[in-house]
Design a protein that fits this description.
With 130 residues, the chain is an alpha+beta fold. The protein has a single domain (2-129), classed as Roll (Pnp Oxidase, Chain A). The chain is built from three helices and eight strands. The protein has helices at 2-11, 48-55, 82-91, and strands at 14-20, 23-29, 33-35, 38-44, 58-64, 69-78, 106-119, 126-129. Strands 1, 2, 3, 4, 5, 6, 7 and 8 form an eight-stranded antiparallel beta sheet that branches. Strand 5 (58-64) and strand 6 (69-78) form a beta hairpin. The radius of gyration is 14 Å and the shape is globular. The N and C termini lie close together (7 Å).
């Protein structure tokens, strides 16, 4: 889990894919946290991405660091604890202009039942399950 977290943190931006009915949606994301041993992401409850994840919890993440790329396939499960929100917002102070822990909009999702595959053009893929 730590290796996946560090890779995504290093990349700063990753791409999150969700389903909107029968249409895939991909957008850049930048929040990744390790809270209580689980990878977590953050969004606003008022955003379409929140609705999409709640309706179809299977998501994929893809990130590239210039040499290797990482694909993560997982189920995103809402993590409603206020401590998860506080932890995420402490890790991303710039978000505190738009979000506050317990504001009813800040939403944390934990990634569960996942696989993470590290790939490159020079090495065989390596997969981690969590």
């Amino acid at each position: 889990m730590q290796e996946i977290y560090e890779f995504l943190k290093k990349c700063e931006t990753y791409y999150l894919a969700t389903m909107d009915g029968d249409q895939p949606r991909v957008r850049p994301f930048g929040t990744i946290d390790l809270f209580d041993g689980r990878l977590t992401i953050q969004t606003g409850r008022v955003k379409e991405v929140s609705r999409q994840i709640l309706e179809h919890p299977k998501v994929e993440i893809c990130a590239f660091d210039g040499e290797r790329w990482l694909r993560v396939a997982a189920s995103a499960v809402e993590a409603p604890r206020i401590e998860a929100q506080e932890h995420m917002l402490a890790a991303y102070p710039s978000l505190q202009k738009m979000y506050k822990a317990g504001d009813g909009n800040t939403q944390i999702f934990a990634l569960e039942k996942g696989t993470a595959t590290f790939s490159s053009f020079t090495e065989a893929p390596r997969t981690i399950t969590f």
